[in-house]
Amino acid sequence: MSDTINFNNTEIAFGTRTKKELLRAKFLFGMLEYGWLTRMAKPLLNIAFKSRLPIDPIIKKTIFSQFCGGENLMECKARIDALYNGGEIMSILDYSVEGAETEESFDQTLETLLNICQFSEFQKQVPFLVFKPSGLGNLELFQKVSEGYPLDTKEMEKWDKVRNRFEKICQSVAKTDNLKIMVDAEESWCHAAIDGLAEEMMVKYNTQRTVVFTTVQLYLSKKYDYLKWLKRLAEQHHIKIGVKLVRGAYMEKERDRALEYGYESPVCEDKASTDQNFNNGVSYVLENLDVFDLFLGTHNELSCLQLVKKLKERGISNSDTRIWFGQLYGMSDNISYNLAEQGYNVTKYVPFGPVRDVMPYLIRRAEENSSVGSQSSREMELIKKELLRRKYPK
């Protein structure tokens, strides 16, 4: 085992990928580099679905297969086993059906999460569950609670149901020996309500071990101070705090809304200040590992290398169970496999769900990849390098 990590090592990164899989990925990431093509895809797919065109098999063999584990848990089993057996990469099963709007659909999402919990309990390669709060309740309700508006009787009943859904899934995970659960991110105007529920669950279930993780989006300038607040919460209640640190995914939406409603944008001024806020957040958590468990959710190679360096400087073992790295399935294999090869705890988010129901997630992922500074060009560079290496091995 080497003391250094080389994220350009494509032999390790793509050791489990066949040539056919690499060529498919090369084609897909090549398409994602054309932003106009991604923008056209969404309305065209909607037309195709409404016209009942039989395009599901094509989608499943291409973009779905690249970024998703399957349509159901049993289809995911082969993918999560391959990740673990091929490089000891752990998996986070992510039910990625978006757009739930009715109480029935929220209950169905909860039922799916409980099934994932039951499925994962004895799967050593699945250490985490994850859910988006908007899967368990209406975002407008989260916003209203966050902004302190009074709820009418019907809204109070719905909010009680949201809290009960949070409670049921967190309680089920807490009853297992090792599973943990992450509350995923939403837009900042919903954070007060979401953070409040996550804090309530941590106070209740993080007494013996770190069960519940909350997501902290550090492209929001005030989130560094929120980490300090979480530390005080932990000390007050004698609990552990799980945090997933990310930069964030709603930058343009946040700025546009602030401009529209005339308030100060909560987003950091520029990329440099965002990176500084992120780095400060990572350092703060590492300085307080008696309180925090850290999940670093990033595709930024420099951020991963900086965390590796900080762990070495502090004499923290590569396999310390308080430290986790995470990337999305189908992306950044050069980070995931090279970190895992050095003994770090690495996970892949493995989205799943029926093809048509997962399409909003896939479109959103495609839009993020085709944006400025996206991952696509880096993925293309690495895939081409590996194909060339296989053609002309040393």
Automatic annotation (TrEMBL):
Keywords: Oxidoreductase. One of its GO terms (biological process) is L-proline catabolic process to L-glutamate. Residues 78-377 form the Proline dehydrogenase domain. One of its GO terms (molecular function) is proline dehydrogenase activity. Transmembrane segments: none annotated. The keyword Oxidoreductase applies. InterPro entries: FAD-linked_oxidoreductase-like (IPR029041), Proline_DH_dom (IPR002872), Proline_oxidase (IPR015659). The keyword Oxidoreductase applies. PANTHER family: PROLINE DEHYDROGENASE 1, MITOCHONDRIAL (PTHR13914:SF0), PROLINE OXIDASE (PTHR13914). This is Proline dehydrogenase. It comes from Flagellimonas hadalis.
